[in-house]
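Q: Sequence in, structure out?
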Amino acid sequence: MKSTPIFFLSALILAACFSCKTQKETSSQNEITRIAFGSCNRQDAPQPLWNPILADQPDLWVWMGDNIYGDSPIMDTLRAKYSRQNANPEYSNLKESVPIIGVWDDHDYGRNDAGKFFAQKKESRDLMFDFLEVPANAPERKREGAYSSHVFGSGEQQVKVILLDARYFRDTLERVDGVYQPNIDGEVLGEAQWKWLEKELKESQAKINLIASGIQFLPTEHAYEKWANFPKERERLLDVIAASRAKTPILLSGDRHIAEVMKLTDSRFPKGLYEITSSGLTHTWSRIAEEPNQYRVGELIAKLNYGLASIDWAKQEITFEVKGENGAVYATQKIPFN
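A: Exactly. Output:
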């Protein structure tokens, strides 16, 4: 038997070590106390919020959709727009110092308001994963869709972030006079993603479980895309979260070019289920308009914004802030662990 040259063994070891260091894991033992998040980001527009976000020293950045405005079935176009975003110097600074995870909405999916019939969805998903630097052997690359979960911290200081894909499997919506009509029997997640979500929640050991999707979960009254366009799916989601008994579930969403804090209180959630929408990294409504939302806590915010979650492990509470340029704070909501 021939002996393996020592230099060859050394090269193999070095290569393995390099691979371990460069792959982003879905689980981290490092304590996490600050999570920043946001959505609706035009790659070709001024991006004034990256420096304030960096100044907050987050431990994690979460993209929640419309991470670029691709709006094209041509993959070379999407690739070029992702490259332009990566070339933004302030965003590059964030990438160098903060782990980044995320999921898409429609503009980065490739077609405005599109669902499961978008022909290029698999190719588009892979481009987004490349943008997020998802490792080649990550579980989400081996299945259909873009959903994923990420656990940070250990022991009694774990946070789980569950990113739902509300595009890849979603049924079609009909729009009449600018208003989306309910799709009573339509699906949002698809059965494989539902089974995965139930397992992720039931088996979660985290003290905080953040559940994110591009479109809003709780609102029922506005005319645009939302989980309530699929009423059975929305109720199923709420039932699944409640039945799982996952600790401190909190919903995060984007899409709307506004920010707001919401709270649902019912028999399933006697202490309340909160949702924080943060949308408008580069653009928001051109004017503030009234929009009914029975779940809103505080005011509707139509300014450039991002979200910041600060965890106080000693006090067992998490504080959400909607923030903007120069560190301005537009809304604050404290949520105790449960």
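The two ends are 62 Å apart (CA to CA).
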